[in-house]
Amino acid sequence: QVQLVETGGGLVQPGGSLRLSCSASGPTTYSINFMAWFRQAPGKEREFVGRISWSTESTKYDDSVKGRFTISGDYAKNTMDLQMNNLKPEDTAVYYCAARYGVSPSYNAWGQGTQVTVSS
């Protein structure tokens, strides 16, 4: 099993920056293949933000955040960060950390979420 905990949410003005962190723990963290960030705005479905491959460190982003958000990971510490720059009001959402571990074809571990609010 893998447990995930996000930290770093808060209130920021448009154009500002915020950094989220996700820490993974548990007896099967060695089998993590991908870690990702998702977000869910009020009244909307959860959507993919970006992900990082734990083996190749390659990243992939949704077009809505490309060029503004950066995902980085520390395999040794089992942590993943999301650096968010030039934030927009439409980035307001609960942000979730997710991990895909073992042989699962989908993300099978989720954090509790952290609120990000972009408002003046």
How would you characterize the overall build of this protein?
With 120 residues, the chain is mainly β. 0% of the residues lie in helices and 52% in strands. It is built from no helices and 11 strands. The strands form 2 sheets. Strands 2, 4, 5, 6, 9, 10 and 11 form a 7-stranded mixed beta sheet that branches. Strands 1-3-8-7 form a 4-stranded antiparallel beta sheet, with no helix packed on it. The radius of gyration is 14 Å and the shape is globular. 33% of the residues are buried. The model has no long low-confidence stretch (mean pLDDT 96).
Write the layout of secondary structure elements.
Elements: E1 3-7, E2 10-12, E3 18-25, E4 32-40, E5 47-53, E6 59-61, E7 69-74, E8 79-84, E9 93-101, E10 109-110, E11 114-118
Parallel strand pairs: 2-11
Antiparallel strand pairs: 1-3, 3-8, 4-5, 4-9, 5-6, 7-8, 9-10, 9-11
Strand percentage lies at over 45%
Shape summary: globular
Q: What is the rounded distance between the termini?
A: 40 Å
Task: List the uncertain runs.
Answer: none
* Topology, number of strands: 11
Number of H/I helices: 0
Task: Find the structural class using helix and strand composition.
Answer: mainly beta
